[in-house]
Amino acid sequence: MKKKEKEDSTPPKPRIRRKAEKLLEDSEELYHLLADHMKDLVWLLDLNLNIKYISPSVEKLTGYNLNEIQNITLEKLLSKTSFDKAMKFFSAEMTKALAAPDDYVLKRSLELELSCRDGRMIWTENAFSFIRDENRKPVSILCEGRDINDRRRAEKALRESEARHRRSEERYRNILDNMEEAYYEVDLKGDLTFFNATAVTNLGYSNDEMMGMNFRKYVDKENEQKVFEAFHRVFVTGEPSKGVDWELISKNGEKKPIESSISLMKDVDGNPVGFRGIIRDITERKRTEEQIRLLAIVDTLTGLFNRRGFITLAEQQLKTAYRTEKKQLLFFIDLDGLKVINDTYGHDEGDHALQKTAMILKQTFRESDIIGRLGGDEFAVLVVDDDELQKNILKRLKERIKEESTVSDVSYKISMSIGVAEYDPSRPCKVEELMLEADRLMYIQKKEKKQAGGYHI
Q1: 304 pLDDT exceeds 60?
Q2: Residue 274: helix, strand or coil by DSSP?
Q3: CA nearest 136: which of 248, 255, 6?
Q4: What span, in angstroms and rounded, lies between the C-alpha atoms of 302 and 279?
Q5: How many Å apart are CA 144 and CA 129, to the nearest integer?
Q6: Domains in the chain with CATH codes
Q7: What CA–CA distance (Å, rounded) separates 269 from 94?
Q8: E strands along 395-442, which residues?
């Protein structure tokens, strides 16, 4: 009777461990049969942490069979962090189990990262318990686990989502204050709500002076309207703007040319709450552009850069792209049938066709892109910051050409052959090499047009 009372007072054990102990006493074969039909991961280790048995679910998850996994140490099976955690756990728990009463139960579970046969790393959650002999002494360790890879991914995604939406100053300050560019956030009225150290340096005001300052305070009347229209366009369309050029006025009255990006900020319900962006000081770029103009590198007929000017600016931009690891697109464009236009309508009309081509290119590409007439009927454009898809640019160019044809008062239509080459900063090259590749692709298209019946001049 006393024995029964003692058994009744024993703390209840996990169902699987209790069954496993009983079945182990009755029959090793029956225990394996139970484990073989479980979806959970089942491992059996001796007290030296050698693997003696794994369930089919373990084989399916890891790709190892029992014979293979018995020849792998835990150190190789687990990631280094998980192995160190497991060794610390087993060292402490086994010491307690050997010294404690025979009813000592492991109460902790561990999340461990397993290495699979194919090289994948999988997270598992594992509960450990002792299998005891008839004298209640530990003889082996039962591990019951489950795959928590999906849960870990979900938890990571949740953490990342929360981090993206957290706008505290603590989150941004260390990163943003070490940026060369100025970072800003404004509310819908244009009042500054957040900015980094570079923005303070650019404007020359103190932090307290800048907080809540409206954008009209640091732009003149001419730029005020330009800035307002840029922000309004982003607000209406919801589409970010990558390169808006305007001038800042610092506290001491100095004007600084800058290029700004603008993105719409929204709250958790999707309602617009303000704008944010990066401001780059383009003083050096403007100075370089002015020096280039002084070197007479502008095509007088079209107002575009000539070959020398285009290559000079494009080389400078490719160096920046290499340093910032950004891809670029180079468009090589040939005005189809210029000789026919000259011969049929005269060279004045040929010049007019070149001017119309230049106008179409200016309307298609952004202000920050570099557009040049290389000579004769050849043009080139370097698209700065390869954010926009090539097909979208080509679609917009085709629409501009079509619009020009509908309003033109001459009997010929503007037609262009185009080749596009991509600059990859991981495989840097000279602008001339990029132009050769784009030129080659352009001539393929021109040849296809000729074979299809000409340019429809």
Answers
A1: yes
A2: strand
A3: 6
A4: 31
A5: 8
A6: 36-152 (3.30.450.20), 179-286 (3.30.450.20), 298-452 (3.30.70.270)
A7: 53
A8: 416-423
Average pLDDT over residues 280-290: 83
Q: What distance in Å separates the CA atoms of residue 103 and residue 28, rounded to the nearest whole number?
A: 22
Under a CB-based contact definition with an 8 Å cutoff, are residues 387 and 328 in contact?
Answer: no
Q: Which residues does residue 247 pair with via DSSP β-bridges, in sequence order?
A: 257
Which two structure tokens, joined as six digits, stand for 337?
């049938």
| CA dist., res. 347 & res. 339, Å (int) | 9
Q: Which of 20, 88, 94, 32 is nearest to 58 (CA)?
A: 32
* pTM, entire model: 0.43
Report percent pLDDT > 90 for the chain: 37
Question: What is the C-alpha separation between 434 and 327, in angstroms, rounded?
Answer: 12
Strand, coil or helix: 449: helix
The beta-strand segments (E) located in 88-191 are 109-115, 121-132, 138-147, 182-187
Beta-sheet strands, E only, within 209-356? 241-249, 255-266, 272-281, 328-335
How many helices (H) does the chain have, and how many strands (E)?
Answer: 18, 14
Q: What mean pLDDT, rounded, does the chain reach?
A: 83
3-state secondary structure 202-229: HHCCCHHHHCCCEHHHHCCHHHHHHHHH
What are the residues facing 278 on neighbouring strands?
183
Q: Which two tokens stand for residue 118?
A: 């194919």
**Helix/strand/coil percent split, the chain, to 5:** 45, 25, 30
Could you report the per-residue pLDDT of 327-382, keeping only the tens digit for each? 999 999 999 999 999 999 999 999 999 999 999 999 999 988 999 999 999 999 99
| Cα separation, 230 vs 204, whole angstroms | 24
